[in-house]
Amino acid sequence: MRCTSIKPGVECAFMTSKGCAYKGGICQQVVEQCDGCGRRSQFDAGWYCTACPEPSVKWKLGICNLATHVSAAPAAAEGKQKINPLKASKRSAGR
């Protein structure tokens, strides 16, 4: 349903026919870490995230999973994988 309170015209999962069902009935403004994100939009009441009603919760445990301006660090550097010598010998023998 489309928001009618803070972000008019934006699709919102928390908006019902009785109003906003999110805690407190309103969305929270973006936090400092959201600067540069593509999901951040300005409305009459200030800057808000179009994907999340409370951005500070998304940043609480680390990087926000919805952030478009931050890239996650790769889990392992390419080319530096540890090779099991037994498996390597079996692969080379099969060729």
Plain-language structure description:
14% of the residues lie in helices and 13% in strands. It has 95 residues and is an alpha+beta fold. The protein has one domain. The strands form two sheets. Strands 1-2 form a two-stranded antiparallel sheet. A two-stranded antiparallel sheet has the order 3-4. The radius of gyration is 22 Å and the shape is elongated.
Strand content: 5-15%
Average pLDDT, to the nearest integer?
Answer: 82
Topology pattern, helix = H, strand = E:
EEEEHH
Taking Cα atoms only, what radius of gyration do you get, to the nearest Å? 22 Å
User: What class would the helix/strand composition place it in?
Assistant: alpha+beta
Count of discrete alpha- or pi-helical segments spanning 4 or more residues: 2
Total discrete domains: 1
| Count of distinct strands | 4
Characteristic key phrases:
single chain, 95 residues, alpha+beta, two-stranded antiparallel ribbon, 14% helix, elongated
Structural topology:
Layout: E1 15-16, E2 19-20, E3 40-43, E4 46-49, H1 55-58, H2 85-93
Antiparallel strand pairs: 1-2, 3-4
Short overview:
The protein is built from 2 helices and 4 strands, in the order ββββαα. The protein has 95 residues and is an alpha+beta fold. The protein has one domain (1-71).
